[in-house]
Every structure is written in structure tokens, then in C-alpha cells.
Amino acid sequence: FDTSQVNNMSQMFSNCESLTSLDVSNFDTSQVTNMSNMFSSCDSLIQLDLSNFITANVSEMVWMFGRCRNLENVDVSSFDTSCVTNMNYMFDSCERLTGLDVSGFDTSQVTEMDSMFSDCKSLTSLDVSNFDTSHATNMRYIFSSCNSLMTLYTPINVLLDVEVPSTTVIPSPFNKEKWYWDETPVTHLPKGLNYS
Length: 196
Hints:
Structural class: little secondary structure
Number of helices: 0
Largest sheet: 2 strands, parallel
Strand order of the largest sheet: 1-2
Number of strands: 8
Distance between the termini: 50 Å
């Protein structure tokens, strides 16, 4: 299965609702520019190893894993997202994900992050401290219904008002200490938040 010349993998496995396992470890994705909805609504998929994916040319990751409701583990730690502009609903409704490493994501070109992690009901901690949101124009509902999210490592600068669950504590990306606004847990990240 030679994918070396493929540039569009949009909806490739979308709505494969009974698919429980998938081996894409030998996929050559070096020419791919669009991965939107690639695995969306793969309701029965439990884990996904994408550690060999080359994503340097990808600009679209909309709904890439959206509604993978039983997905417990997906390795995106090696993703090069430097060309991505749209991450709307990327992990939306991944209800069984307990951990997700996006700490290396380059979001400097991303303008859309609507509902990126919404309804990740089992996610307890998330590190987005390296996210560059300087071009983001839409971060609406980015953490909506992340009801188990207890710790959120945030970017140094936040240019938009971003709501977070009221139970979430926001540690400083510098010293990881817990902090509060007016001695109450933060319920949103104020626009213009700057630690420096």
C-alpha cells in the first residue's frame, strides 16, 4: 500500500464505526497536506500509533480524531504542526482519553481551535504551555466539558478569553505552582494573561 504520492487523506477512515484496531505504521505521509476527519467517528478504535507519521506539510487537522469515543491512547507527540492552520474539533469527544501529549505542537500558524479538546471527559491533565496563540481568532469551547481536567499548563500569552472547567487549576508554566485569581479557582483564562 504505497501512500508516498498521496496529498489528501481527508476522511480516509471516517465513520469506520466497528474498526477496533488499525495499523498505519508504514504509511508514508510526507506529501499529505490534508488530514481532516481522517479518523473521525471511529467509535470502536481503542489505540492508534501515529509515531511514524510525517506531518510537516499538513495544514488541515479539523476533526482528525473527533468522536473517537473509545480511543484511550493516541501518540501525536512527534507531530510537526508548523504548517497547520485549522485544529477545530481535533480531539472533540475523545471521551476515554486520559492523557494526551501535545506539548510539542507548533501552533504558530493556527487560527482556528474551536472545541479542540471539548468533551474529552476523561482527560485529567493537559500541557499546552508551548502553544503560540498569537494568530488564533477562534478558541471557543476549546476545553468545554473537560469535566475531569484538574491541571492545565497554559501558554505564557493568551490573546482571547478562554473558558476552562471551574475545577481546573492553572499552574504557572515557569514554576508549576498552583495559583488562583482572588483566592478562588480560575474559571477562565483572561485575555492578555502574561506571566512575565
